[in-house]
Amino acid sequence: MGKWTRRAFIGAGSLVGGGFVLGVAGVAFAPGRHGVVSADAADKGGLTTWITVTPDDFVTILVPHCEMGQGSQTGLAMMAAEEMEADWDRVRIEEAPALDAYANAYMLRAFTGDAMPAPLGRAIDYGAYRLARWFGTQATGGSLAVRGTGYGMRVAGAAAREMLLAAAAERFGVPAHECAAARSRITHAWSRQSAGFGGLAKAAAAIPAPADPPLKDPDTFVIRRTSKPRFDIPPKVDGSVRYGIDFTLPGMLHAAVDIAPVEGGRLVSVDPAPAKAMPGVQEVVELENAVAVVADSYWRARKALAALRPAYDDAGHGGVSSATIFAAFDEALGDAPEMPAEAAKVVTADYRVPFLAHATMEPMACTARVEGDRAEVWAGTQDPLNARSIAAGALDFDADQVQLTNLMLGGGYGRRLPFCFDYVDLGVRIAKAMSPAPVKLVWSRENDIQHDYYRPAAMCRYAGALDPDGRPLAVAAHYAGGGDGESLFMPYSIPDQRFDGRRAPHHVREGAWRSVLNSQHGFFKESFIDEMAHAAGRDPYRFRRNLMGGHPRFRAALDRAAEMAHWGSPLPEREGRGIAVAESFGSIVAQVAHVAVSPEGRVRVRNVHAAVDCGDVVNPDSAAAQIEGGVIFGLSAAMVGEISIAGGRVVESNFNDHRMIRMADAPDVRVEFIRSDHRPGGLGEPGVPPVAPAVTNAVFAATGIRVRDLPIEKQDLSAPI
Amino acid sequence: MPIALTVNGETRTVDVEPDTPLLWVLRDTLGLTGTKFGCGIAACGACTVHLDSRAVRTCTLPVSAAEGMSITTIEGLAPDGALHAVQHAWIDQQVPQCGYCQSGMIMAVSALLAQRPDPNDAQIDAAVTNICRCGTFVRVRRAIHAIADGGKQEGRHG
Ligand code: FES
Ligand code: FES
User: Fold this and answer.
1) What is the complex's ipTM, to 2 decimals?
2) What are the tens digits of pLDDT across the range A573-598?
3) Which one of A124, A142, A544, A647 has the fewest beta carbons within 10 angstroms of its own beta carbon?
4) Could you tell me which of B141, B149, B147 has the C-alpha nearest to residue B158?
5) Domain count along chain A
6) A233: which chain B residues are within 8 Å (Cβ-Cβ)?
7) pTM (2 d.p.)
């Protein structure tokens, strides 16, 4: 067994049966020091690992991120396999279990906006590590799977390659630097000796792990930058993949839940009798803010739940509505920002966006079994470690009394991130009431739409000033509903830029929604720059472009999107193109939307062209899919998405009133990547922010009507008679 | 009350209330979890199966209404170990993202193609009204056209 040292973060050892195991962590730990015991420690050699090589020549890569359909597991495995010179056809992927050892320190670094972590062997960021442990985080979110963890994966692959090379050199009796690795074989050309990874695995396990293995020159990549089919897809076409909601145990009971409709409200009373009289019902479980029916089948639980008439209080929020929330925003924003006295022209505009639900297609689900002082939990989460501590908190347990198995997610988009585990909290509380029977809680769609951690509603008051030549002198905004450096950033050289956040708190529960604050501010800022272009009498693409001298990456993306969409070519009446560009999660995305507005005012988006600079692209086809998905997700929000509040509670309840776009409204989406050696940026989120402004800017081009309040369908866009 | 169902070519007898939606019988009684729950109000298509080769949403369909009909779920779309043309195309075009909606999507598309081997875009839009939150529509359309084109090349129709 190789030693885990506090400096190297790389450990290696042998597997039972002659295999080789290598682990790299972005953190410092020694076996046992943090109580790290993997569930399959016996098979995996007692280490928590990222890569194993077995005598059958297969390389198995453990990926410390859950798969939400972004292809992150495949992408991360490609990064490791590339450095390792593994044969991609003989690579398997496994998801790491929820254990502290995988706490991903790098995610936090990426969130704090630091540069790429320094090589693991050289610089140790104890601060980030302690933070990661503090939060118990193992999150997949913020498009960070490839940004942060990828570096660790590369180092793991490179270390494994170096050790296999050293083992081969010893066997061949030649210097290691004369040997070459390719397609899971080490070859010494001159002496014509070669050996497969599997045959070398045992010997490699005895080589000391290098602390600082060299990484490949990107020009020599053979796996990355080529499109590889995703590992997770085949089981998704034949129904065999198991999501959290599909999990089942012998003797398992089923629970349906009704939750206090107003956030913060409590269950006042409920008469359990009508439910208890129904077939198959085992129990009516009263919780602080909810009531659950547990039955021998889910349908029976739901039917019985519908027979109950629970009464809740409204926590004093009964008077809150969307109107009162926006009125408070309006007041908090105050006067429009002041503009310089020398301005020849001043432009002002207010923008609003509503709350939005994530509405993952898989409703929240959690299976739990509580037995004495131990609990087991099965759920799909974007952060198994945090979900585990939420479960432990609900049961008054220590985290290590809870074992959490993370299952495939039927969509995340930020809904299943740290501190968004109300479904786990409810699930374990219900299971505790039914102990020791295992209970699966499945949320209804109504539960899901009405009890989300919503994309914050927001409002923004912009002002801009132009000089007599139409050059912008100043741009400033007051905003309510949140904002940060990245979301407020404008890539335009405008000398005077001011942003001022105002607070107007409300009780609606909020969270991170695909692209976080960028979906609101992307719309605000890219709408406003369009309005300034119009006020200056300039073409909105050229106006932006002329201000981008200091930001060549933005300019290149903007140019490419304009080219792809044949910007400027003539269009029929009531059709138009709109352009927008935004950076989020380290990736720059420019989009041109082409819309047609019917005389009745119906908007049809014909196509969206997206030019993306996300740095080095690991898996191009899967990257394109993420951008396509982001465009559709953002378009749903822009066209029809709205969660509204009345009487303190969410009005919408299911897909009949919280609508989504479907095939008929989905435009063709074309994606191109700009060749770039910058470090990989995110892909899951950055497709979203430019969509809404690209479409509303196009609607303006088509009709002369400026949509400043989303969703678009609220605005009358019919042709004047 | 026992109800006899024909699921993926096999006769299965289930003992459930006759108003139980077919969806929950498939998932919870028969363990065929490939058919998904998304909304429960026939609004999303996640629960789509074939009932006598028509695409039907099962979350609002009482199990009693399926008695005597032939039910095909995603698990039975192709014979054991093989893949249906739609499933092949879904892998070729890398359609699924999270995948949760895709059983229903594939069942809707395969029913459409059985009726119309070469649908135009308007026919696709009318027949495939499933929700996909991951936004795979672009590839769904591409994959449907690819299947139709493949069929043409093989001279099966058109
Ligand atoms: S679950 Fe049946 S249509 Fe949505
Ligand atoms: S692939 Fe995720 S909902 Fe369609």
Assistant:
1) 0.96
2) 999 999 999 999 889 999 999 999 99
3) A647
4) B149
5) 3
6) 90-91, 94-96, 99
7) 0.90
